[in-house]
Amino acid sequence: MEDIGWDTDAARWLNPPPEAVCEPAATGGGTLVVTAAEGSDFWRRTSYGFDRDTGHALLTPFPAGSAVEVSFIAAFDALYDQAGVMVRVDDRTWIKAGVEMSDGAPQLGAVVTRGWSDWSLAPVPSWAGREVTVRVSRSGDALTVRARREQEPWRMVRLAPLDPDATAAAGPFCCAPQRAGLRVRFTRFATGPADTSLH
């Protein structure tokens, strides 16, 4: 995987956040600390009856045969605080995957949207306050989503369809649907070839 870092020539904001501060590291690389706007979210219709397309995502081109990997640390305190990776074709076709606060605990999950959103979750209370990495690989007609805490083994999160001819972009995202002040420290943003294994 090759680090993109926080180069705005390589990636562009969808809905720029109120604040995004680069903090260089002494050994190279560095982090991007993003403050999410209150009420920011990505969702379409299902169950809740509303469309939201106000979350923050830093997106780079995501062609077939490639993967994107994002690492982050955050204190998820409020309902629906969330961060991870977004893959986006347009406002009706997208996937977000990562960690979200729900039912009083951090949850590993994904929302897959093709006109309507669906949502899957699994509790990961031991991931609270730890560095999480989400990797999405695009191969053929599918996206394969994996995640892990720190250097632990990868966990399968989701296998979802994506038109192989679709023009897509991908990168880190965060949202704070219920509160102001969510800060997410993104520690890595990298791209490379898609994983060869199916899952």
TrEMBL record:
* Family annotation (PANTHER family): REGULATION OF ENOLASE PROTEIN 1 (PTHR35332)
Q: What is this protein called?
A: DUF1349 domain-containing protein
Question: Which InterPro entries does the record match to this protein?
Answer: ConA-like_dom_sf, DUF1349, UCP022704
A Pfam family that this protein carries is DUF1349
Originating species: Streptomyces paromomycinus
User: What Gene3D superfamilies does the annotation carry?
Assistant: 2.60.120.200
